[in-house]
Amino acid sequence: MARRAPRGSARPEAAPPALLWAPWRSAYVGQTPLGGADCIFCMGRIGAATRRRRLVLYAGRLALVMLNRYPYNNGHLMVAPRRHVASPELLTREERSELSEFVSRSVQRLRTAYRPAGLNVGMNLGRAAGAGIADHMHCHLVPRWEGDNNFMPVISSTRVLPQSLARTYALLEPLFKTIGADLS
User: Fold this and answer.
1) What's the total number of domains in the chain?
2) Which residue from 23, 147, 158, 181 lies 20 to 30 Å from 30 (Cα-Cα)?
């Protein structure tokens, strides 16, 4: 039971967040990424249909760019090395270079597609740091707008995303066709 603020207080104490039942997520969160087929970032050569199903916008030789299936905001991307490693110091110089280029080029494409007021770009390394997939490092890119946090997260701990993942993919996929064109 939530405690009430003392009489005359302008702000009640925060109530515990409401539960939003999402049983379809159990298959995703129950997985323990081990590399190979069990890791969302580990994949060999994939065709267009598989790329679309797995939300991969671009798969380069050493890194890939994909949509986050559980986005913080529309356009939330993840850039990851193709090789299954947990931290940047384990990457080769060439892998770091391609990963960095893909982050930079993804920022350009997000600015073109969404015209955000800003972007969050970063990594959570290790479960204690908030990494949902701790064994395969990845960088998050999250477009942000003034006022993108409204009353829903504050009052009901619920985020509102105005665009479906299918629509986000359709908007961004054409922009990513050329991301690796001038890496050579």
Assistant:
1) 1
2) 158
